[in-house]
């Protein structure tokens, strides 16, 4: 459990520091277009990690212990494999972040000289950062395995699917539907080899 939380902590801290390395936005959608996915991703993330590293079956003031009761138990070697999956997911997200360079933004934005990036991890999936984070969330769910974590996982994935869809609508409008449509037709959205 500690190793899993360490992966998330290192990713989160390094991601926050790297946020300083990005170009200024020249266009962004109305804030109302962002609150929906942010509500899902943030609440999902908090529930996925169960607001902190409570022991299995533990409880929190005012929350029923059944929310923390594990639905399954995995052997230690499988849990360690899942920690490696979380690490690989965080690494894939970082690859996507580094490949975007100064075009990256936590919010929906268009930067100066913005273009469709279709190489590196963006040749595998259109949203490798979200794919990597979802892979890490799968690993977290596998290890934690309680109802609150399961709920958080569903919200987290819904949030990133909403964000990816909203981002694609925004980029299509900003960069040209015909430009983004070619990329969308050639590369899967979130899961390699699964077209959408």
**Global mean pLDDT:** 88
Please mark out the parts with pLDDT under 50 across 5 or more consecutive residues, or reply none. Answer: none
Number of helices: 6
Computed over alpha carbons, the radius of gyration is 18 Å
Write down how many β-strands occur, each being a DSSP E stretch of 2 or more residues: 2
**What's the main sheet like?**
2 strands, antiparallel
How would you describe what is shown here?
It is a single chain. It contains six helices and two strands, in the order αβααβααα. It has 196 residues and is an all-alpha fold. The protein has a domain of 107 residues. It has a two-stranded antiparallel sheet. α1 packs parallel to α3, α3 packs antiparallel against α4 and α4 runs antiparallel to α5. The two termini are 34 Å apart.
